[in-house]
Design goal:
By secondary structure, the chain is α/β, with parallel strands linked by helices. It has seven helices and ten strands.
Length: about 290
């Protein structure tokens, strides 16, 4: 696995800054489930990192264990072996360290749009108050921030609307803002655009790029769309069939801010074809096994 930190200097150099711990580090994680008295391996020594402020994508065959990996990172499952570290601190099987955006918006239908956006900050404030007996953040401040963000993503005037009154793309923007405004540094995005039509998906990709450029949160993004992964991410991990391990790590060298025209660049197309070939080879292995 390639290291994200720069190589250390020559022997004898002094006063070097300590390397910054990654926002996320998955170290040699193994996971298996029991199925009808036999063991079903799902993750096989999987390791990856997400640096602070980095956008990392994961692609891999269907059913290879990508969602299981997110459950491990979120603390919903404990691996049989391996560790999860955030900012250099071991958080294996601990909850509450990530913000999460699922495939579907998962908005509460009885809450208004602004109330859905505020949900993550409300939960965090309640948890902080319970843990430390400190006063939660004043609601007017959180509400003002939520309204400001809603305006910046084209949802001004919809603050008091309900989820069923919004289009699919608009609901996804609300779900993303809810994750963005949570206090956790690391965001896990689980195929957030997979249910959208092609035109809406393209629009949401451009929107996400613009919002991420303003905020630069640490992001781990699951997608089956190779072009989407290369367009959005700084690095792409290509996973094997189940039990999943990292097959390849692809550096995406294109400058930011990214634009959709980049997808026609010969260097972009070369990487897209290469990843597609790796994925095809994995599918062939699965059929032969």
């Amino acid at each position: 696995m390639k290291q994200l930190q720069d190589k250390p200097g020559s022997v004898g150099e002094t006063n070097q800054a300590s390397p910054v711990a990654p926002a996320l580090e998955i170290v040699d994680v193994h996971v298996s489930f029991k199925e009808r008295r036999r063991k079903l391996p799902v993750l096989n020594g999987l390791s990856l990192t997400v640096a602070k402020g980095e956008f990392v994508a994961i692609v891999g065959p269907s059913g290879c264990g990508k969602s299981t990996l997110f459950h491990i990172i979120g603390g919903l499952l404990k691996p049989q072996a391996g560790e999860v570290l955030m900012n250099g601190i071991r958080v294996t099987a601990q909850r509450g360290h990530i913000s999460y955006m699922p495939q579907q918006p998962a908005l509460f239908p009885w809450r208004t749009i602004e109330e859905n956006v505020l949900l993550a900050s409300e939960v965090a404030s309640t948890a902080a108050f319970t843990a430390s007996n400190t006063q939660p953040a004043p609601r007017p401040e959180a509400l003002a921030e939520a309204r400001q963000w809603l305006g910046s993503v084209g949802l001004a005037g919809f603050e008091q609307a309900y989820p069923h009154q919004l289009s699919g793309g608009m609901q996804q923007r609300v779900a993303f803002l809810r994750a963005l405004l949570s206090p956790q540094e690391l965001m896990l995005l689980d195929e957030p655009f997979s249910a959208l039509d092609a035109l809406t998906r393209s629009d949401m990709q451009r929107w996400l790029l613009d919002i991420w450029e303003q905020n630069r949160r640490s992001v781990l993004f699951i997608t089956h769309n190779i072009e989407e992964a290369l367009l959005l991410a700084d690095r792409v991990y290509v996973l094997s069939n189940r039990p999943a391990a990292v097959l390849h790590e692809v550096q995406v060298p294109f400058d930011r801010p990214r634009r959709e025209e980049m997808t026609e660049d010969p260097a972009f197309l070369k990487r897209k074809r290469q990843i597609a070939q790796w994925m095809k080879e994995e599918q062939q292995k699965a059929r032969l096994s």
